[in-house]
Write a structure and sequence with these properties.
Blueprint: H1 4-43, E1 47-50, E2 64-69, E3 75-79, E4 109-112, E5 119-123, E6 131-136, E7 142-146, E8 151-155, E9 164-166, E10 184-187, E11 193-197, E12 203-207, E13 213-217, E14 229-235, E15 240-245, E16 250-253, E17 269-271, E18 278-285, E19 288-294, E20 304-308, E21 313-318, E22 327-332, E23 338-343, E24 349-355
Bound molecules: 2-acetamido-2-deoxy-beta-D-glucopyranose (2 copies).
Pfam family, one: NHL
GO molecular function: metal ion binding; peptidylamidoglycolate lyase activity
Organism: Cryptolaemus montrouzieri
Length: 358
């Protein structure tokens, strides 16, 4: 016993040292795993989670063609009331066929409470014939397109007369003064105006803040061809304007040329995957894009897409538990905490919270 005791003590001491070393190294490993985990979590996009029972009440709306969010974080929607866009709306030369019905008498622009979905404000009665796009800029101006009128408008908040008018009323055309069923606006913080025009011309017009035409996208020497630019958004940190190039089933992001003309010859970023479907609208958050597609084929699900334009990849897919019907427009709110999707069949508006991935 006496002889073995020092060995036992030594063995115990060595064991303790080994255990301490194991605990120490494993706890260090834990920490470093968490560090790696945190880096990965930061790289993953926020996930849209549908808010249940929002809006609380049935708003009894027509086709909701446009949605945007004002700086009070309130969603603002643009709807067609009793009008429906179908194969009889336009003839073969893209002329609107129901001018005799007059403008929609109901309010077409509704501001909603972000918590309850209750209607807080109504505007835009007796002006529009076939609503399409709605964009609210940081100064609360409303940028609206009406496909029937072949026009785009800038309305200052609360005013009934537009301060800027693009295109000629009921006159489809492809010169620089006429539009043809324009779809949507995107407005830069520097004031430049991007107008997607539209169902027939398949071009994007870039104007300065006063409405002077600066550029037509694609330009003649540009290797880019659009087929119904249906939605448009800016990614200012990347100096890109991203277009829902609907019939080409892709999103393309040419240079916006906001800060300098350097790089305007860079090729567009192109996001096109086989099951992407026809992309109806896009809205940016930081350097990412949230998009919705529409009916394409029975094999391609109608869903929301989260896109990283820099890697030209779809990085997430999402939809409400009940599924989408026919989503038409999407808007991320100014601080990126939620997004809204407007549908034209059934006519409804969805709110999604943007939550960090688990
Ligand atoms: C389409 O309608 C417009 C006006 O309603 C008319 O002037 C034009 O000739 C029509 N085009 C065709 C192809 O019928
Ligand atoms: C964004 O705004 C909403 C509504 O005001 C607010 O509840 C939310 O906390 C804000 N989120 C961030 C990230 O600032």
């Amino acid at each position: 016993m006496n002889v073995k005791q020092p060995y036992v003590i030594a063995a115990i001491a060595i064991s303790i040292v080994v255990i301490v070393v194991i605990i120490f190294t494993s706890s260090r490993k834990e920490v470093s795993k968490e560090e790696v985990g945190a880096v990965v979590a930061d790289d993953r996009p926020d996930v849209p989670k549908a808010v249940k029972d929002w809006p609380h009440e049935d708003l009894k709306l027509g086709q909701i063609s446009g949605v945007s969010v004002n700086s009070a974080f309130q969603p603002v929607i643009f709807h067609r009331a009793d009008r429906v866009f179908d194969q009889y709306t336009f003839n073969a030369t893209s002329h609107f066929q129901h001018i005799d019905k007059g403008p929609i008498t109901e309010a077409t622009v509704l501001t909603l409470d972000p918590h309850t979905g209750k209607v807080l404000g109504r505007w835009g009665d007796n002006i529009f014939y076939m609503p399409h796009g709605l964009t609210i800029d940081r100064h609360e101006n409303l940028w609206i397109t009406d496909v029937a009128m072949h026009q785009g408008f800038k309305f200052k908040p609360g005013e009934l007369e537009p301060t800027l008018v693009f295109g000629k009323k009921f006159q489809p055309g492809s010169d620089v003064n006429r539009l043809c069923m324009p779809t949507s606006f995107a407005i830069a913080s520097t004031g430049e105006i991007f107008l997607a025009d539209g169902y027939c011309n398949s071009r994007v017009l870039k104007y300065n803040a006063l409405g002077k035409l600066l550029k037509v996208i694609p330009s003649k020497d540009e290797f880019l061809s659009l087929q119904i630019p249906h939605g448009i958004t800016l990614i200012e940190p990347l100096d890109r304007v991203c277009i829902a190039d609907r019939e080409n089933m892709r999103v393309v992001c040419p240079r916006a040329g906001l800060y300098s003309l350097h790089g305007t010859k860079d090729p567009p970023l192109t996001i096109q995957e086989p099951d992407m479907g026809k992309v109806y609208d896009v809205s940016s958050k930081g350097t990412l894009i949230y998009a919705v597609n529409g009916p394409t084929s029975s094999l391609i699900p109608i869903e929301g897409l989260t896109i990283d334009p820099q890697t030209e990849k779809i990085i997430d897919r999402w939809s409400p538990p009940e599924g989408f019907g026919l989503p038409h427009a999407i808007a991320v709110c100014p601080n990126g905490s939620s997004l809204y999707v407007a549908e034209i069949h059934p006519n409804r508006i969805w709110k999604f919270e943007l939550v960090a991935p688990k």
